[in-house]
Write a structure and sequence with these properties.
Bound molecules: ligand C2E, calcium ion
Helix content: 55-70%
Strand content: 5-15%
Strand order of the largest sheet: 8-9-11-12-13-14-15-16
Mean pLDDT: 83
Largest sheet: 8 strands, mixed, barrel
Radius of gyration: 42 Å
Distance between the termini: 99 Å
Structural class: alpha/beta
Low-confidence stretches: none
């Protein structure tokens, strides 16, 4: 900035020296102006950013230079006022104004209009004051003083420009960039020299060749240079008194002029300017009204949830922040509906929406009037209980669960909705809203996981839960980048020792944490839509492998695990059918393993899907048998082909007579209803033999083999089969 000023000072000084020499002055003066205009036009042609603005300014400067050209060569430097030169000089503003408005819009965004109106008000008011005071004597009789009118038009126009710039800077907190400062400097010089000119034209006329003439060139050079200096977008500061200060101050000024004019002394120019200033103020106020109204509307819209009409997450956070700022204790409740996604999928979105709308009033009925109920997104609600501590929050949690427990009558059925609630208390658990919300979320997860209904935040759970969230996030990348692999664990026929099939078990080749077992990541994504994607991927990989083995002459059955969520997915049956077709795998070669938990959320739907899968011809297995709550009663109801006895029973068999009895009777019962029985988790030969003795059909376990990558399994298959045959006594017999 200083350097630029110094440069211009020296340019100015040199110009002035040459100026005094006389003959050189006009060409030099014109060259300076043409250079300035050229700088703007080249800038516009060269740089795409702010192109239109600098083009307009460049045209303005051309008009200005044209005015001088006309003055020097047309009128020999003694143009009358008004003259054609004035017409050109004034038309320079036709370029400067739009140029600067465009510049303002570019650097300031759309809101710039109000700021420019402020500038217009300012310029008109100042013009009115100038016309009514300093210029009053000569403007008094208008007809004789056209020169004064035209002369005063320049400074008024400059002041309007300058005030526009000033209000722009005021609105952005007085922090102009270098380009802005240079522009303002140029305009300031212009005001000064135009004002001097105005006085000169009022008092006895003006002619070219005054000692201050080079200032015009200097001013234009400043303006042009601004185009080449680094600029930055201005950020509008929050509306403040500073911004209103301008229109109010100038309105007062214009009003004062009119009041003063009541005495009849004021010249018409001043009156017109003052009236225009007040008109512009009204326009400005109308604009302000509109801005404020739309701001209020956006604010309200941005704080409410469309569906439920409750406050949204933003409103909730703001309220929590306010309560923290006030220093009042309060409790934050995070409420998540259980199995909402399934319900939504099963009954349709309109029912889901209706349910969500019904939740708000139920929750609101359990809290006090000053408390806030908000929808944080999806099926998640937040409640802020003012003045509540942990104990009070727990009482409210109980009430809420009772409130939600009453069935909702939706779509002609009565729906029971469970919810898990997490509680975090200020100031005990955190003293900022973000952390508090996170802690309530962690507690909510704990409540869901432990099926406790609600839970108060306890810091130990936090780490665990954050890990889960991070993992779920990374899983997206894992699916996209094929980081999932399958290992296969063989199943052998207990009677013959033959390898009959394999179970596909997913692994995650995590880029940082190495090979992860399913227990490390499945729980984190179990209730998200990532689970469906994962299942689809696993199914597809397993089918590709089954087809490859088939081509190699191996007719191993391939078992794939499904999660409860998968069974609620309408797509599942079609997906399985499509995969079977694509890879030409006979359906009988695929076994899908499900656990009893599929019956927990929506038994009818799950049964229907299982039925359809079976119609496709794939086999179904009931996994982890014995760990569920009503095992045997479900046996006849579920359309499965085999059961897999959970390894907790199998492992205990060797040591506990009771476990052995359970396994034995289960095998009998299953056989009685026509099901095959697989025992999993066999780790030693003793267990193997016992299972064989009780008539179990197939065996799976570390004793036979750990889950292995397909290649390793193929390579080791002969040895594994040999071990199975020996364990079953077949190999010894034949040997
Ligand atoms: P699961 O279906 O009960 O699978 C058997 C699990 O027991 C496997 O653990 C297997 O490595 C382990 N196992 C096998 N034999 C023995 C043994 O002799 N002793 C012991 N201690 N463990 C044995 P893994 O691979 O960690 O899988 C754990 C669970 O993750 C599976 O239990 C299954 O519920 C789930 N899972 C694995 N892959 C998938 C998948 O692709 N989709 C879905 N939905 N779930 C899967
Ligand atoms: Ca399984
Ligand atoms: Ca199992």
């Amino acid at each position: 900035m200083v350097a630029t000023a110094a440069m211009f000072a020296s340019v100015g000084a040199t110009t002035f020296k040459l100026w005094s020499l006389g003959s050189l002055k006009w060409p030099i003066f014109l060259v300076v102006l043409v250079v300035a205009a050229g700088m703007c036009l080249v800038r516009a042609a060269w740089v795409a950013e702010e192109r239109a603005a600098w083009f307009a300014i460049g045209l303005g400067l051309c008009a200005h230079a044209g005015g001088w050209l006309m003055d020097f060569y047309g009128y020999n430097g003694v143009a009358p006022v008004p003259s054609l030169s004035d017409a050109l000089w004034l038309s320079a503003y036709l370029g400067l104004y739009p140029g600067l408005v465009l510049l303002g819009r570019h650097r300031f965004g759309r809101r710039g209009l109000g700021v420019w109106l402020d500038g217009l008000v300012g310029g008109l008011a100042l013009g009115a004051v100038a016309a009514g005071t300093a210029l009053q004597p000569s403007l008094g009789s208008l007809s004789e003083s056209w020169s004064a009118v035209v002369g005063s038009a320049y400074p008024v126009a400059d002041v309007v420009l300058l005030t526009c710039m000033a209000t722009t800077f005021a609105a952005s907190g007085w922090r102009p960039c270098r380009s802005g400062k240079t522009l303002v400097s140029g305009l300031l010089i212009l005001v000064v020299v135009d004002t001097v000119f105005a006085f000169a034209s009022v008092h006895g006329g003006w002619f070219a060749g005054q000692s201050y003439d080079p200032l015009w060139g200097t001013a234009m050079l400043f303006v042009a240079t601004a185009g080449w200096l680094p600029s930055r977008r201005l950020v509008r500061t929050e509306a403040s008194w500073r911004q209103l200060m301008f229109p109010i101050g100038f309105a007062a000024m214009a009003t004062a002029m009119l009041v003063y004019g009541q005495s009849g002394h004021l010249n018409p120019v001043a009156v017109v300017l003052a009236v225009c200033a007040l008109g512009a103020v009204m326009l400005r106020m109308a604009l302000l009204m509109r801005e404020t109204a739309s701001l209020a509307l956006t604010r309200r819209l941005s704080l409410t949830d469309d569906l439920t009409g409750l406050g949204n997450r933003r409103a909730f956070t703001a309220e929590a922040e306010a309560a923290i700022a006030e220093g009042n204790p309060f409790a934050l409740l995070m409420i998540d509906l259980d199995q909402f996604k399934e319900l939504n999928d099963t009954l349709g979105h309109h029912v889901g929406d209706e349910l969500l709308r019904g939740i708000g009033p139920r929750l609101a009925a359990t809290v006090r009037p000053g408390d806030l109920v908000a929808r944080l997104g999806g099926d998640e609600f937040g409640v802020l209980l003012r003045g509540a501590d942990e104990r009070a929050a727990c009482v409210v949690c109980d009430r809420m669960r009772e409130g939600l427990a009453r069935p909702f009558a939706l779509a002609g059925i009565s729906l029971h909705v469970g919810a898990s609630i997490g509680v975090a208390v200020h100031p005990d658990h955190a003293d900022d809203a973000g952390t508090l919300l996170r802690h309530a979320d962690v507690a909510m997860y704990e409540a869901k996981r432990g099926r406790t209904g609600f839970a108060v935040y306890a810091s130990e759970g936090d780490h665990h839960s954050r890990d889960r969230l991070a993992l779920a996030g990374e899983m997206r990348a894992a699916l996209a980048e094929d980081q999932l692999v399958l290992h296969y664990q063989p199943l052998a026929d207990l009677a013959s020792g033959e390898l009959r099939g394999v179970e596909a078990l997913v692994r995650w080749r995590h880029p940082e944490r190495g090979l992860l077992a399913p227990g490390a990541f499945l729980p984190a994504i179990e209730h998200t839509d990532l689970m469906r994607e994962l299942s689809h991927r696993v199914l597809s990989m397993a089918m590709v492998q089954a087809a490859a083995w088939r081509d190699a002459g191996l007719t191993w059955r391939v078992s794939v695990n499904l999660s409860a969520t998968d069974l609620l997915d309408r797509q599942l049956v079609d997906d399985v059918a499509a995969l079977l077709r694509r890879h030409s795998v006979p359906p009988g070669q695929i076994t899908l393993e499900v656990t009893e938990s599929v019956l927990m959320t929506d038994p009818q739907r799950a049964m229907m899907v299982l039925g359809e899968l079976r119609t496709l011809g794939v086999r179904l297995a009931l996994d982890d048998f014995g760990t569920g709550w009503s095992s045997l009663t479900h046996l006849q109801r579920l359309p499965v082909d085999e059961i897999k006895i959970d390894r907790s029973f199998v492992a205990a068999m060797a040591a506990e007579a009771r476990a052995a009895a359970i396994v034995s009777s289960t095998v009998d019962l299953a056989h009685a209803v026509g099901l095959r029985v697989v025992a999993e988790g066999i780790e030693d030969e003793a267990t193997w033999s016992r299972l064989r003795a009780v008539g179990c059909d197939a065996a799976q376990g570390y004793y036979l083999s750990r889950p292995l990558p397909a290649g390793e399994l193929e390579a080791g298959a002969a040895a594994i089969a040999e071990r199975a045959r020996i364990a079953s006594g077949v190999a010894r017999l034949t040997a």
